[in-house]
Design a protein that fits this description.
heterodimer, A: alpha/beta, D-Maltodextrin-Binding Protein, domain 2, five-stranded mixed β-sheet, 5 strands, B: mainly beta, Porin, 16-stranded antiparallel β-barrel, 3 helices, 16 strands
Chain lengths: 140, 382
C-alpha cells in the first residue's frame, strides 16, 4: 500500500512538472494590463498591428518546439505550423512579417525587456519584474 | 459620392497620413524574397494515346521586394515570370504584377495605391503565391500559366490601382471589406496607335468584396463592373445609325467560402461573368465553380479532392453588308482531381496531383477532349 501511494505521488509530481505554465509578457511600458485570447491571436495573425496608444505591436516567437511554445499556440487555437502558413500568406502578400523567433526563452525575455511594444511568451518561472505579465496560461 | 469627391477625400486622407508619418520617419531595410514552382507534367489523352506529352517547366517564379518607407507606410514590388520565360527563345511571359505603396491607418482602414492584384473572392489575391496553395495545377481560372490558352482576365480582375480595405470587429466576427478602382480592359496594346498600356476609354473598373470571418469560417461576396469595347470594330462598320453598341457593360460576381476545423478544410468559390447583351443577342456569359475538400493527415501532409467546372459562352460577330451576323455557342470544362502537398520544411513544398480534364463542346471551334494530367511540383519560398 505504501508503495502504491508513493508511486501515485511520484506520478503526480511528474505530470505536474510536464505541465507548462506560460506567461504572455509585454514590454513594461505597454499600457494594457491584460489581453483577451482573441486579441492575442489577432496580434500573432497580424490583424492587429498597433496598441491602443499607437505603439507598433512587435510579436516575438520561440524557435525550438518546446512545451512552452506548444502550450502557447494551443491557447491561441492554432498549431505553430498552421500559424506559419498564416504568416507566409501575409508575407507573400506584402501585408506583414513573421514574428522574430529566438533560440531561447532568455533571449526572448531580453528582447521584450528592451523593445517598446513587444509581446512574447515564456515559462512563468522565467518572468522578471522588468516585463509586464498580460496573461498566465495554465495547461496540463 | 461623385468621382471627384472620392478623389478629393482620398487625397486629403493621404496628405494627413503623410503629415503624421513625416514626424517619425523610420525606414526599414529593403527585403528581397520570392518563390518559384518547378513542375513535371504527363498528359495523356483518354480516348487515343497519340497526343501523350511529358514536360518539365517553371510555370511560376516571383521576385518580391518590400520596404517600409515610414511608420504605417510600406512599398512592395512583385516581378513575375511565367512558363519558363525566355525572351531569346520566345516563350513564356514576364510581368510586373504589383508595384504599390500602402498606408495603414488602422485595422479598419488601409489604402493601397499603385499597380496591385485586387481582393476578389478568396484566391484571386494569392493565386500566384504557389507555396501557399496545395495545387500544382491551380483551379482553371486561377492558373496563371493558362493565360496563353484561356482568357483568365475575363473571369478575374487582374489588376487595379487604388484599393481601400480593412476589417471591422463585430461581436466575435470580423467584417472584411475591400473596394477598388482600376482601368477598364480597353488598354491599347498596339504601339503604332499611340502609347501602349493605357486605357483608351474614360471608364473604370470598380469592384470590391464584403465578407466575414467567424472562428474558422470565412465567407464573402465579390463584384466588379467595367465597360468592354471589344466590339468597337463591328460598331464602326455598322455605323452610328445602327443600334449595336461597341461598348458593353460587364459584371463579375463572385462568392467564396472557406472552413478549417483543424483537420478538415473546405474551400469553394463561384464566379459568374455577365455581359449586357440584349442588343446583339450574342452570348459571352461565363461561369466557374470550384470546390476542394482537404484533410491534414499530419501537420506537414495535406491531401485533397477537388472539382472544377467552367462554362463559357462565346460568340463570333461579323458584319455582312449592313447586317450584324452573330454565331453563339458554348463549351464546358470539367476537371475532377485529387492531390497532396507535403511541407518538407518551412520553405519547400512538394506537390502531386492527378486531374482528368473533360472538354465538352458541340461546335467545331472548340475541340472536344478527355485527358488525364499527372503532375508533380516543388514550390520553394526563398
Amino acid at each position: 500500500m505504501k508503495h502504491t501511494v508513493f508511486l501515485i505521488a511520484c506520478l503526480w509530481c511528474w505530470t505536474g512538472e510536464a505541465a507548462a505554465q506560460v506567461a504572455v509578457i509585454a514590454h513594461k511600458d505597454v499600457r494594457a494590463d491584460t489581453v483577451a485570447r482573441s486579441q492575442l491571436f489577432d496580434f500573432y495573425a497580424g490583424d492587429l498591428k498597433f496598441w491602443a496608444d499607437g505603439t507598433p505591436i512587435i510579436v516575438l516567437d520561440l524557435k525550438p518546439k518546446t512545451e512552452v511554445k506548444k502550450t502557447f499556440y494551443k491557447y491561441l487555437g492554432k498549431s505553430s505550423s498552421r500559424m506559419k502558413s498564416i504568416w507566409l500568406k501575409r508575407m507573400l502578400s506584402g501585408e506583414g512579417d513573421p514574428p522574430q523567433a529566438f533560440k531561447s526563452e532568455e533571449e526572448l525575455l531580453q528582447k521584450v525587456m528592451l523593445t517598446p511594444g513587444a509581446v512574447g511568451f515564456v515559462a512563468t518561472e522565467k518572468v522578471n519584474e522588468q516585463v509586464k505579465v498580460l496573461v498566465v496560461i495554465e495547461e496540463k | 459620392m461623385s468621382m471627384w469627391q472620392m478623389v478629393r477625400s482620398l487625397s486629403l486622407c493621404l496628405l494627413l497620413g503623410a503629415t503624421a508619418a513625416s514626424a517619425q520617419v523610420e525606414e526599414g531595410e529593403l527585403r528581397l524574397f520570392g518563390y518559384f514552382q518547378n513542375q513535371f507534367e504527363y498528359e495523356s489523352d483518354v480516348e487515343n494515346n497519340k497526343d501523350d506529352a511529358t514536360t518539365f517547366g517553371l510555370p511560376q517564379l516571383n521576385v518580391l521586394m518590400q520596404k517600409d518607407l515610414a511608420p504605417r507606410w510600406r512599398s512592395f514590388v512583385n516581378f513575375e515570370v511565367l512558363n519558363s520565360f525566355s525572351s531569346s527563345r520566345r516563350w513564356g511571359a514576364f510581368n510586373i504584377e504589383e508595384a504599390w505603396t500602402r498606408y495603414r491607418l488602422s485595422k479598419e482602414f488601409s489604402l493601397k495605391l499603385g499597380l496591385q492584384i485586387p481582393i476578389f473572392n478568396h484566391l484571386n489575391e494569392i493565386k500566384n503565391r504557389t507555396p501557399l496553395l496545395p495545387y500544382s495545377i491551380r483551379p482553371l481560372v486561377y492558373e496563371s500559366s493558362f493565360n496563353e490558352i484561356l482568357s483568365l482576365e475575363e473571369y478575374l480582375p487582374a489588376r487595379t490601382f487604388v484599393q481601400a480595405y480593412g476589417f471591422v470587429p463585430y461581436q466575435n466576427a470580423k467584417i472584411d471589406y475591400a473596394v477598388f478602382l482600376g482601368n477598364s480592359p480597353n488598354v491599347r496594346t498596339v504601339q503604332d496607335e499611340g502609347q501602349s498600356g493605357v486605357d483608351t476609354t474614360n471608364t473604370f473598373l470598380i469592384g470590391g468584396r464584403v465578407g466575414t470571418r467567424w472562428r474558422d469560417l470565412k465567407v464573402g461576396v465579390s463584384a466588379t463592373r467595367d465597360e468592354v469595347n471589344s466590339f468597337q470594330a463591328a460598331h464602326n462598320e455598322l455605323g452610328e445609325s445602327s443600334n449595336f453598341s461597341g461598348q458593353w457593360s460587364r459584371l463579375r460576381l463572385g462568392g467564396d467560402l472557406s472552413y478549417d476545423d483543424g483537420r478538415w478544410r473546405l474551400d469553394g468559390e463561384f464566379i459568374a461573368v455577365e455581359y449586357d447583351e440584349d442588343i446583339a443577342k450574342a452570348k459571352f456569359d461565363k461561369r466557374f465553380y470550384y470546390g476542394t475538400l482537404g484533410y491534414y493527415a499530419t501537420e506537414q501532409l495535406f491531401a485533397y479532392v477537388s472539382y472544377w467546372f467552367n462554362k463559357e459562352h462565346f460568340s463570333v460577330l461579323s458584319v455582312v453588308g449592313d447586317r450584324l451576323v452573330v454565331l453563339s455557342d458554348s463549351f464546358d470544362i470539367k476537371v475532377p482531381n485529387l492531390g497532396a502537398a507535403y511541407n518538407v520544411n518551412d520553405r519547400v513544398v512538394v506537390k502531386v496531383q492527378l486531374a482528368r480534364g473533360d472538354i465538352e463542346s458541340n461546335n467545331d471551334l472548340v475541340q472536344e477532349r478527355k485527358f488525364d494530367v499527372y503532375s508533380g511540383a516543388v514550390s520553394v519560398f526563398f
